[in-house]
Design the sequence.
């Protein structure tokens, strides 16, 4: 490497080290606040600051050739940031306390698909320090593998550790996939330093890291032509969170259609321990789908166009199927299909909470779309309703916050599409 190039690489590595220290300090200071739930504007500001530092780090990784020392900074920094934020209380989300409740239910031999927190006789299972306020009359909506993970541990700390370990394991899988594809290993920073990823798992203890890990394992197995293993991992991912189900056609396109039987078999086996729920097996999911709508973007536009929720859901389903057909027709690589279809699903979904956007971040390591990188930061505005809700007021979303969250992303997305597929000019 020429001397000037070597000097630039050294400066870039020092820059990454400085950004790592700055990000770590930001996370440390943020989580040192007594109760972030009462300081949501400050929390959002901290995440935006971390996002700006993160995007600059992505720029360095994408534009400057780096060496192994920089990779060590990236991986070490990822571990440090998570360790700094791990001891903090999950104050901006109550989901982990629902996980705890469902774990207690299972350890008592009850079926989580047939009971709910407000059911008479189950009052003793409530945590008095953190009573479940929302979803008290709804049984679980989570798939079986996630339910089994809830059964394993008994404390908030243990949940956070479990899902952070899975998050860190995803970094290892991303490095393996990047190596297999002969892409720069330093791109793992796109996932490893993403503020939304770090906050969602190490701070809030969301279980989505389980599905992400298994989906990445499915992609890695597919790269090495382990078709049955790949489809099995995909099925396990669906048993953790339902969203990977939309990827089945893309995976079958790369394997064989008969492997659909493997997928269905693994999913069916996952539900066997809970079959006693009978018709109630998917009642919690249907109640959630019918009653919840939050932080949505394109789906909200469909509603504002005068459609009922059912009509908007039908239109959204047709559009998701159209995206799937497009991915199949263009024969997109599985990793590209994952990014396209999951992004489309999130934009068309009636619910797109901030931690849902962690689903797309791993796939940005292979196709770093500026608009979707921005989306992974602006999604923190999805926490803005907590400002009023934490004071006892009803949950109410702000149209202004939704505009600030999504409009810059869609504007940049249109710009990207315009330059990728410029309009034909008549000669």
Sequence:
């Amino acid at each position: 490497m020429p001397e000037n190039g070597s000097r630039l690489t050294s400066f870039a590595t020092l820059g990454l080290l400085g950004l790592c220290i700055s990000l770590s300090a930001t996370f440390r200071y943020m989580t040192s606040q007594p109760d972030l739930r009462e300081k949501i504007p400050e929390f959002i500001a901290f995440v935006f600051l971390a996002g700006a530092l993160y995007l600059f780090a992505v720029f360095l990784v994408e534009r400057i050739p780096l060496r192994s020392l920089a990779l060590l900074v990236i991986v070490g920094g990822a571990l440090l940031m998570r360790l700094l934020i791990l001891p903090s209380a999950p104050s901006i989300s109550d989901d982990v306390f629902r996980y705890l409740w469902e774990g207690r239910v299972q350890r008592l031999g009850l079926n989580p698909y047939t009971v709910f927190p407000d059911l008479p006789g189950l009052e003793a299972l409530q945590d008095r320090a953190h009573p479940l306020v929302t979803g008290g009359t709804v049984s679980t909506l989570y798939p079986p593998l996630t339910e089994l993970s809830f059964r394993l541990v008994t404390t908030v700390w243990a949940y956070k550790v479990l899902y952070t370990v899975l998050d860190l394991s995803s970094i290892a899988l991303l490095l393996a996939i990047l190596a297999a594809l002969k892409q720069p290993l330093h791109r793992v920073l796109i996932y490893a330093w993403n503020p939304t990823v770090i906050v969602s798992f190490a701070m809030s203890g969301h279980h989505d890291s389980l599905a992400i890990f298994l989906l990445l394992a499915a992609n890695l197995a597919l790269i090495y032509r382990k078709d049955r293993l790949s489809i099995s991992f995909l099925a396990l991912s669906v048993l953790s969170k339902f969203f990977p189900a939309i990827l089945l056609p893309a995976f079958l396109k790369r394997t064989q259609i008969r492997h659909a039987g493997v997928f269905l078999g693994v999913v069916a086996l996952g539900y066997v321990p809970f079959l006693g729920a009978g018709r109630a097996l998917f009642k919690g999911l249907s109640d959630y789908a019918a009653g919840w709508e939050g932080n949505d973007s394109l789906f909200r536009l469909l509603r504002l166009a005068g459609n009922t929720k059912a009509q908007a859901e039908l239109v959204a389903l047709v559009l998701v199927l159209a995206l799937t057909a497009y991915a199949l027709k263009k024969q997109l690589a599985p990793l590209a299909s994952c990014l396209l279809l999951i992004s489309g699903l999130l934009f068309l979904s009636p619910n797109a909470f901030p931690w849902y956007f962690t689903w797309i971040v791993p796939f940005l390591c292979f196709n770093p779309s500026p608009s979707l990188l921005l989306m992974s930061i602006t999604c923190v505005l999805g926490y803005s309703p907590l400002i009023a809700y934490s004071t006892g007021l009803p949950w109410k979303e702000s149209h202004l916050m939704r505009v600030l969250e999504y409009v810059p992303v869609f504007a940049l997305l249109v710009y990207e599409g315009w330059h990728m597929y410029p309009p034909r000019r008549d000669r």
